Amino acid sequence: MRILITNDDGIGAPGLAILHDIAVQVAGPAGEVWTVAPAFEQSGVGHCINYVKPSMVTQLEERRFALEGSPADCVLAGLNHLIDGPVDLVLSGVNRGNNAAENTVYSGTIGGAMEAALQGARGIALSQFYGPGNVELDNPFEAAAGHGVDCVRRLVSDAPWGGDDYKLFYNVNFPPVPATGVKGIAAVAQGYRGDARMGVHPQTAPSGRRYLWIRGSAQGDPTGPGTDVRANVEGWVSVTPMRCDLTDRAALTDLRAVLDDYDG
User: Fold this and answer.
1) Looking at residue 29, what is its pLDDT?
2) 95: annotated binding-site residue?
């Protein structure tokens, strides 16, 4: 198996090293693991691509590249230029912090897996929830390191990957507990915290210039039953199937009832 890995925390991030270990085990002795990751941190860039400027790429080792671009750029570069031949799987992560509930739509880690799906490849985003149960561990990524291989293997071998147009990809979040505290894997929906909105914190520099820091909010508030954050804070690895199609089908039916001019 040939696997491409990327992330949004940057080429030197510890979560990428965890992901490389996971990918090596999934690929097997005869497999290949290629790394194309951002040269600098790209957290919060979502599915951004550097459409209006070129991105410098630097080869660091065999099958290991740093790209001055987003995770989606890295996937594009890997699949369409740097790797000679087809790729069986794209893994994005392991992100430092959760990409559940509202965080999902901001995440560059999700953007990498999303771009894989748009390119016709299998994509999985992996993130490690941080909380009181793991933040003080020698390895806060212990849950991901201990359970990532099994989770990815099960998704590759058993999960649906269909789609004639917008293909499925998967969002995986590991709970904020030690590896021994993981209860299992839960297939859940994307949750909604409700009050976890991004905001701004204004500051004035000594020079008088004004700056705005973007800031988030509390991450541990559980979402509803059967959703990602609820599963994570209760000790489960959450897996959510996703597509790039953003259409709200129920609203579309209602909309057609009031905008009925089109008969196509």
Assistant:
1) 97
2) yes
